[in-house]
Amino acid sequence: MDGASARIPEPAKVPGVVAASVYAGGRRIADIAIDEAGQWAKKAGHVVWIGMLEPSHELLERVQTQFDLHPLAIEDAEKAHQHPKVEQYGDALFIVARTAQVVDGSIAFGETHIFVGRGYVVSVRHGASTSYAAVRQRTEACPKVLARGEDYILYAILDFIVDNYMPVVETVQAEVDKLEDGVLHRTLRTQEVDRLYMLRRELLRLRKAVVPLVDVCHRLEHAEVLPIDPQMQPLFRDVSDHIRRVQEDIDSLREVLAFAFEASLMAGQAQQNAITRRLAAWAAILAVPTAVAGIYGMNFEHMPELKWSYGYYVVVGGIGAICALLYVRFRQHGWL
């Protein structure tokens, strides 16, 4: 194999192609050109693995020609507008999975379309997604498992996609913890309440991206008619378990956000009630001197206290005593 690898020239880089390699016995033989991929895939014991990032229509047509891919699948792979699904076209599979990343503090979504057939795996990435170079390096480091062929490569890609949901969930978890602490110690600002709502909406979108993959993996796991090696089917059950754990974490976070949002509303209402009580208490206290001043401001000529030398002091003292009594009572009841 080493001799064959030395005779194969290094292919020119093609825009949209991240990597294109052929493997035999779990080891990479060489990097190949797209127009040679079909020939390599037809060789017994060889698997072609091509990774593409937002390829052009012309590039997808070249790949279609090499592996005789279905036109409908190519049409779907050209644009990122699909829901997670698995479709069978003859002896080939077309899988769609949603990807997610945290970009500038928000969850950005992308799609990965995977073509799987006898002797080849083609992945097409659109939008926000971590490079699958790590998947390739990890599988190449274990020739024994990579020798299982295209079904294992499909499992490795799906498992990597699901694993990359966790950093997104953990990032949201850290922000939710901070907001939750704020709810317990103070009233949230308007910007923080808006952020609570946005996070809950983004988690709902993430849930819609994650949960349908359970059905995809279930079909791959119980592939009576799909061209999946029966010995490889249990691996997709492991992916399903990971997805369910992510789903549980998302649901828990959404419940926490709902509680924080409701607690923030209740805290705001409590603060408004406290302010209302405080204003009402001061209004009651100020009503005493206002009422007395109103009475003595009526300018009647015959009022008993007007001619009394101690009248002023008695009235002012009485006002002060009543106001002090009201202040003490309001303080005892928590209104001031």
Describe the structure.
- The model is unreliable at 1-8 (pLDDT under 50).
- A 7-stranded mixed β-sheet has the order 2-1-3-7-6-5-4, sandwiched between helices.
- The chain has helices at 2-7, 37-41, 57-67, 71-78, 133-140, 143-146, 150-163, 165-185, 190-210, 212-221, 233-296, 311-332, and strands spanning 17-24, 27-31, 46-53, 85-89, 92-103, 106-117, 120-127.
- With 336 residues, it is α+β, with helices and mostly antiparallel strands.
- The chain is built from 12 helices and 7 strands.
- The longest helix has 64 residues, at 233-296.
- The radius of gyration is 36 Å and the shape is rod-shaped.
Assign the CATH class of the domain at 1-143: Alpha Beta
Tell me the fraction of residues in β-strands, as a range: 15-25%
Q: What would the average pLDDT be, to the nearest integer?
A: 84
SS elements, strand count: 7
Regions with little confidence, pLDDT below 50 for 5+ residues: 1-8
How many individual helices?
12
Radius of gyration: 36 Å
The CATH superfamily of the domain at 1-143 is identified as CorA soluble domain-like
- The level of helicity is 55-70%
What overall geometry do the principal axes of the alpha carbons give?
rod-shaped
Major beta sheet, strand line-up = 2-1-3-7-6-5-4
Q: What class do helices, strands and sheet pairing give?
A: alpha+beta
Largest sheet: 7 strands, mixed
String of helices and strands: HEEHEHHEEEEHHHHHHHH
Gap from first CA to last CA: 87 Å
Q: What is the correct CATH architecture of the domain at 1-143?
A: 2-Layer Sandwich
